[in-house]
Amino acid sequence: MDIVFNCPNCDQEMAVDQSGVGSEIDCPSCGEHITIPSSGKVTTGSLPVVTPPPMTASPVALSAAAKAPLHLKVPVRDKPGESLIDKPRPPLEVVQKGAGKKLRILTIRRAACIESGHDKFDEKVSMALHEITETNLIGVHPITYDHFDVGAQKVMTDYGVLIIYRG
């Protein structure tokens, strides 16, 4: 049988076998030297198991942090905030060459530029080169290709332009 008693200094509850009555021990909680009393609650076996009452709310909702009022302020800015992650800028000579841009290829076929019987090949190539700009232009190459003309029912040879640029 165990004797259950409380420390006289810190009120820590302890349980000791009945054979330890009258002996002196140090309290595990406060470290004070105490004598085990002969009177106390006598239990058989181990300490009784206490089941907690069923919870009606979550532990987070019952915590002290959930009950504390929060007074948060959101910063209001007239201008965009500063960038938190800065990328290193490429060297100036790399920027001039357009190294940050991918190589692209544009193929313009003369047969695709005929609208309502009018050949607009030169206009389409001029507009494409104007949009690409001279700084991004790498090369302009003439091409020759064969295609089947449905109207004439024969294979025709035509020409076009292959434009390589950064963009």
Summary of the model, kept short:
By secondary structure, the protein is an alpha+beta fold.
Reading side by side through the largest sheet, how are the strands ordered?
2-1-5
Strand content: 25-35%
Largest sheet: 3 strands, antiparallel
- Helix-strand pattern, N to C? EEEEEHHHEEEHEE
Quaternary structure classification: single chain
The number of distinct helices, counting runs of at least 4 residues, comes to 4
Q: Spans of 5+ residues with little confidence (pLDDT < 50)?
A: none
The termini sit apart by 88 Å
Strand runs, count: 10
The structural class is alpha+beta
Which bin fits the share of residues in helices? 10-25%
Radius of gyration: 45 Å
Described by the principal axes of the CA atoms, the overall outline is rod-shaped
Mean pLDDT across every amino acid position: 79
How would you characterize the overall build of this protein?
With 167 residues, the chain is of the alpha+beta class. Among the domains are: 2-43, no CATH class; 98-166, no CATH class. It is 16% helix and 34% strand. It has four helices and ten strands. The protein has helices at residues 59-62, 64-67, 92-97, 121-132; strands spanning 2-6, 13-17, 24-26, 33-35, 41-43, 103-109, 114-115, 118-119, 137-149, 154-166. Strands 2-1-5 form a three-stranded antiparallel beta sheet, with no helix packed on it. Strands 6-10-9 form a three-stranded antiparallel beta sheet, covered by helices on one side. A two-stranded antiparallel sheet has the order 3-4. A hairpin with a 4-residue loop joins strand 9 and strand 10. It is rod-shaped, with a radius of gyration of 45 Å. The mean pLDDT is 79.
